């Protein structure tokens, strides 16, 4: 495993404080707030720590309540809502400064069989035919300052290969749809919950971008406040997050200072593994004073 992936896995190694109580750290980086995918992945890890290995996560529903402070640990409190014969339900609240910053409800299920169908995977170039992320952005590095350019080309825990240039490299309006190949930047152990948590982390990296495509809005845009509001995932079929996964993303609507985006994550062989839906705040600065 590469060092960035090691660091991500270290973030998912929560400290057990007490029964149903865990503590997670954030990367030692200069950030204004904790990355939402990190909080979601850590909360799912906390929930999974209280569930038997015979039950895999099949869905999660979560809300981002307050910006996370990257300078202090996050405490995750797990509520064992129900342990049924087939399903197990957990609620997790992430706490900082004595206040909830995030909550998650997750459901786990024993393996069962039943009817089976799925949407087909879009036809896109194979990841091996696409440039690496570093190769994709190197021609544009002279647009940025030296420090930011160095940050852009650093090794990352998630290897991503977008089919087209990322929006922030080509900010012209475009249809609200994108395809990105993703995988962990190194081999992972055979632990289904870990693979689900890594994909939960990765699923928040690009999804909300899709809702901003038609409007040519950038995260660096000074005129908008942009933040994730909620995040939901359904885990349909087995997958490995250290193998290539196609993240097909589209946005059906943006209105009321909010944008909705949905994603379908396919295995390389076309198997639909995960569905993701997220709503995010896309608020023109000055339209409201209250933070989300």
Account of the protein in words:
The radius of gyration is 19 Å and the shape is globular. The protein has 6 helices and 12 strands. Strands 1-2-4-5-6-3-9-12-11-10-8-7 form a 12-stranded antiparallel beta sheet. It is α+β, with helices and mostly antiparallel strands. Strand 5 and strand 6 form a beta hairpin. 17% of the residues lie in helices and 37% in strands. The model has no long low-confidence stretch (mean pLDDT 93). The protein has 2 domains: 1-110, Roll (Thiol Ester Dehydrase, Chain A); 157-292, Thiol Ester Dehydrase, Chain A, CATH 3.10.129. It has helices at 3-12, 36-48, 133-137, 146-152, 192-202, 209-212, and strands at residues 15-18, 21-24, 55-64, 74-83, 87-96, 99-110, 158-162, 177-184, 224-235, 245-255, 258-267, 272-284.
* CATH architecture designation of the largest domain: Roll
- The tally of beta strands, per DSSP, is 12
SS-derived structural category: alpha+beta
Please give the radius of gyration in angstroms. 19 Å
Biggest beta sheet summary: 12 strands, antiparallel
- Topology order in helix (H) and strand (E) letters: HEEHEEEEHHEEHHEEEE
* Spatial ordering of strands, largest sheet: 1-2-4-5-6-3-9-12-11-10-8-7
β-strand percent reads: 35-45%
Count of the separate structural domains: 2
**Shape by Cα distribution:** globular
Q: What are the segments in which pLDDT stays under 50 over at least 5 consecutive residues?
A: none
Using the coordinates shown, work out and report the CATH topology of the largest domain: Thiol Ester Dehydrase, Chain A
Distance between the termini: 37 Å
Instruction: Specify the helix fraction band.
Output: 10-25%
CATH homologous superfamily identity of the largest domain: Hotdog Thioesterase
Q: What is the CATH class name of the largest domain? A: Alpha Beta
Q: Mean pLDDT, nearest integer?
A: 93
Quickly count the helices: 6
């Amino acid at each position: 495993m590469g060092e960035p992936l090691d660091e991500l896995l270290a973030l998912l190694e929560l400290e057990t404080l007490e029964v149903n109580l865990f503590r997670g750290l954030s990367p030692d980086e200069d950030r204004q707030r904790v990355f939402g995918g990190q909080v979601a992945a850590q909360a799912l890890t906390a929930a999974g720590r209280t569930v038997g290995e015979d039950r895999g996560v099949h869905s999660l529903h979560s809300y981002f309540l307050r910006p996370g402070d990257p300078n202090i640990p996050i405490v995750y409190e797990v509520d064992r809502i129900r342990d049924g014969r087939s399903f197990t339900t957990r609620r997790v609240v992430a706490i900082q400064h004595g206040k909830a910053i995030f909550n998650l409800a997750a459901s786990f299920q024993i393996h069962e069989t039943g009817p089976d169908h799925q949407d087909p995977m879009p036809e896109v170039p194979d990841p091996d035919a696409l440039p690496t992320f570093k190769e994709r952005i190197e021609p544009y590095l002279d647009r940025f300052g030296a420090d930011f350019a160095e940050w852009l080309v650093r090794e990352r825990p998630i290897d991503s290969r977008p089919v087209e240039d990322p929006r922030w490299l080509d900010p012209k309006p475009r249809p609200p749809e994108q395809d990105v190949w993703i995988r962990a930047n190194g081999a992972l152990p055979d632990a289904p919950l870990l693979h689900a948590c890594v994909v939960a982390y990765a699923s928040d990296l690009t999804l909300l971008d899709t809702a901003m495509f038609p409007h040519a809005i950038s995260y660096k845009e000074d005129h908008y406040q942009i933040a994730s509001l909620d995040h939901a995932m359904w885990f349909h079929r087995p997958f490995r997050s250290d193998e290539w996964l196609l993240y097909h993303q589209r946005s059906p609507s943006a209105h009321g200072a909010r944008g909705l985006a949905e994603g379908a994550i396919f295995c390389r062989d076309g198997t639909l593994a995960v569905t993701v839906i997220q709503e995010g705040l896309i608020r023109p600065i000055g339209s409201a004073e209250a933070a989300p």
